[in-house]
Amino acid sequence: MEGAGAIPAEGSVAAPCSWLAAAMPTPHRPPTLAAPSRHRADDLAEDGVPDAPFARELRAWRARRGLSQRDLALRAGTTARHLSFLETGRSRPGAAVVLRLARALELPLRQRNALLRSAGHPPAFPDRSLSAAQMLPFRAVVEQLLARHEPFPAYVIDARWRLVQSNRGGAWLWGLVGPAATEGNALLAMLRAPAVWDALENRAEVAYQLADALERDAVTSGDPDLLADHAALLRLLAGTPRPPEAEGAPPALCPRMRFGGHTLATITTICRFGNALDLCLDELRVELVFPADPETEAVLRAMGEQA
């Protein structure tokens, strides 16, 4: 994490894209995760025909989204009968049909590519590095966001919540986490770090918002790593009850952390590229942290001058 907004060398980060990020949580409770069935019947279609990979994936995604065959057919502009044939492996879909179904299921681009492959089609959305010529304008945007947000924290986290890059203003925060910040789910590592957990005055509210966001991302992507991280976070919170939702709540949750004799209150906003057609840009999110009061601003500016 050296330098402000410096792009890591190509191949230096073991991630689908070297510039990705995960958003800080929102205060809404996501739907409950539905555990996939492990019965042997899942390996066969309803009429006993051996199940094709696409049919199995389509049924699994429809179940995760809580949709009936009729609901999904209406969303995708097809018939329930046709959808039934697709889910039992009796019909092989064309690429256009797969993409219509993927859009109706609100799948991220990476999962749309996976659904296409399961049906025997090539992926529709490229996965370029930000060092590619076509990506240079987007890379410049990311660098400007990180650099121009100094002296306040700004960082990029990939689709699995792994820390990829931070500006100088955020170095102090990740320094509290230590090496664990770059060894897996960075926000989970942040909560596990005693220097952060003990300093958070509203730790329960922050932790449960993170848990909700992590569950929401796991439901959206179906990523087993996110599912495992969500379970790990719930274990961490086993002895911490969820705070009740009180009337007159603030517009957004502002984490409050004791640091250097001060209480730092921050506001977080997320930057994303709209209408992305590349996996890297679709998954990229840059998190910008702002001071929520004059005291926090003064402290962060002073730390920025010392960085």
Structural notes for this entry:
With 307 residues, the chain is an alpha+beta fold. It folds into 2 domains: 40-118, 434 Repressor (Amino-terminal Domain) (Orthogonal Bundle), CATH 1.10.260.40; 133-306, Beta-Lactamase (2-Layer Sandwich), CATH 3.30.450. It has helices at residues 53-65, 69-76, 80-87, 95-104, 109-118, 136-148, 168-177, 186-192, 194-197, 203-221, 224-236, 279-283, 294-306, and strands spanning 154-157, 163-166, 256-259, 262-272, 285-291. It is globular.
Overall structural class, as computed from helix and strand content, comes to: alpha+beta
Q: Determine Rg (CA atoms, Å).
A: 22 Å
Rounded to the nearest angstrom, the distance between the terminal CA atoms is 12 Å
**CATH topology descriptor of the largest domain:** Beta-Lactamase
- The oligomeric state is single chain
What gross morphology would you assign?
Answer: globular
| CATH class call of the largest domain | Alpha Beta
> Would you count the extended β strands for me?
5
User: What is the CATH architecture term of the largest domain?
Assistant: 2-Layer Sandwich
Number of helices: 13
Helix content: 40-55%
Order of helices and strands: HHHHHHEEHHHHHEEHEH
Strand order of the largest sheet: 2-1-5-4-3
Stretches with pLDDT under 50, minimum 5 residues: 1-50
* Percentage beta strand: 5-15%
How many domains make up the 3D coordinates?
Answer: 2
Mean pLDDT: 85
> Quick one: biggest sheet?
5 strands, antiparallel
